[in-house]
Specification:
This protein has 171 residues and is an alpha/beta fold. It has one domain: Rossmann fold, CATH 3.40.50. The protein binds adenosine monophosphate (AMP). Adenosine monophosphate binds next to β2, β7 and α5.
């Protein structure tokens, strides 16, 4: 797994001073690494009853779509406000400065659908915690929150349902 970690590039002071940004584009654009990352994550869920993958805008769409294809499910999009064309359900959550909102189509799930929520990276966990609430509010059941990478020192998983968080690469 170390080779996959090494191919992720650190960008210091992006998007602002003091943040070390994990640039996953270097992993995505390398054919072998991308295949391996998707195969390793999908393998974890083969044989499980999963009804839907939920992808979080924007980088969560990449992993989400690849997982959905591998597992033979559909993908549901969680998007920033004003992007989804049909009736939506929304959730707002706190950021370091101010708040953010995410939306999902209100008919995204059948009651009790078992879903995996996919995103690129678990940092503070604020985004995923909001999406967990949004998905549950709309009648689905969380099977797992799946990430390519996790910044463990931020302890984002403490904000998420216990035992339902998986990340492939830990930093
Ligand atoms: P969070 O809500 O703090 O868990 O992070 C929300 C989103 O911000 C994640 O889905 C990542 O896409 C992005 N993000 C936060 N911190 C970083 C980081 N250090 N490097 C790369 N992406 C990050």
């Amino acid at each position: 797994m170390d080779d996959l970690k090494l191919i992720i590039r650190d960008i210091p002071d992006f998007p602002k001073k003091g943040i070390v940004f994990k640039d996953i584009t270097t992993l995505l654009s390398d054919a072998k690494s991308f295949h391996r990352m998707v195969d390793l994550l999908a393998h974890r869920y083969v044989g499980e009853k999963i009804d839907q993958i939920v992808g979080i805008e924007a980088r969560g769409f990449i992993l989400g779509a690849a997982l959905a294809y591998k597992l033979g499910t559909g993908i549901t999009l969680v998007r920033k406000p004003g992007k989804l064309p049909y009736k939506t359900s929304s959730i707002s959550y706190e950021l370091e400065y101010g708040t953010d909102t995410l939306e999902i189509h209100e008919d995204a799930f059948k009651p009790g659908d078992r879903v995996i929520i996919a995103d690129d990276l678990l940092a503070t966990g604020g985004t995923m915690a909001a999406v967990v609430d949004l998905v549950e509010k709309n009648g689905a059941v969380i099977y797992e929150c799946a990430f390519m990478a996790e910044l463990e020192f931020l302890n984002g998983r403490s904000k998420l349902p216990s035992g339902k968080v998986y990340s492939l690469l830990k930093f």
